Write a sequence for this structure.
């Protein structure tokens, strides 16, 4: 379970984190600046999750790429052996044609403008475009890759709702899964790919997700009880 430290940070502030572990995971809003210095890249409240994960949470409307984030991307164009990908951040990201499981010079994905991807950011700096891949650290696809289905759609949710849906405290996705068969790719950039067994089921999932924009965790639990009892 994550918790707020109560510390309010501004861009450029140095953040004190426990670096007695062999490594520390820095999430959105934090940047490693030197061997033992961590600074805030935006204003927000510092959050901590055991054993050693830190991030800044803030009510921002614009997504800022952070290393390790999983995001929904849309292919814009191909440039040589790379693709430019819209990740709905300040700038498009770069995706190598070889950043797919099993990709070679003779076997590369045939992506077209408009294709959707679930990808992970491996490099993010304010002075250059972010870099994304569709493989995990073991070179496997895992849950990453091209998103395609005739019954799917893409919706946009506030970033704070995305964080809530990804929290283990939120019961909505588990409850919906007991009632409706569906697939979901939640991008930390505010985009969610929804795929139900039919268009009608997809729209039902979208309606439930959009309802979360005005509900607290307690209210979501109440909604889940109503869904479970229906």
């Amino acid at each position: 379970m994550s918790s707020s430290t109560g510390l309010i940070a501004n861009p450029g502030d140095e953040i004190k984190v426990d670096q007695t572990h062999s490594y520390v995971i820095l999430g959105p809003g934090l940047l490693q600046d030197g061997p033992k210095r961590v600074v805030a890249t935006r204003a927000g409240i510092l959050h901590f999750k055991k054993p050693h994960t830190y991030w800044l949470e803030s009510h921002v409307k614009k997504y800022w790429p952070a290393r390790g984030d999983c995001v929904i991307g849309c292919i814009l164009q191909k440039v040589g052996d790379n693709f430019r990908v819209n990740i709905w951040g300040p700038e498009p990201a770069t995706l190598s044609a070889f950043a797919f499981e099993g990709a070679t010079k003779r076997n590369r994905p045939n992506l077209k403008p408009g294709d959707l991807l679930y990808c992970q950011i491996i490099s993010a700096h304010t002075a250059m475009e972010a870099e994304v891949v569709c493989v995990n650290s073991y070179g496997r696809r895992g849950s990453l890759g091209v998103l395609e289905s005739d019954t799917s759609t893409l919706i946009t949710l506030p970033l704070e709702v995305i964080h809530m849906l990804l929290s283990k405290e939120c019961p909505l996705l588990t409850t919906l899964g007991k009632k409706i068969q569906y697939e979901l790719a939640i991008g930390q950039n505010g985009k969610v790919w929804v795929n139900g067994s039919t268009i009608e089921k997809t729209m039902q999932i979208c309606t439930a997700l959009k309802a979360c924009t005005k509900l607290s965790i307690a209210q979501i639990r109440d909604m889940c009880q109503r869904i479970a009892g229906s």
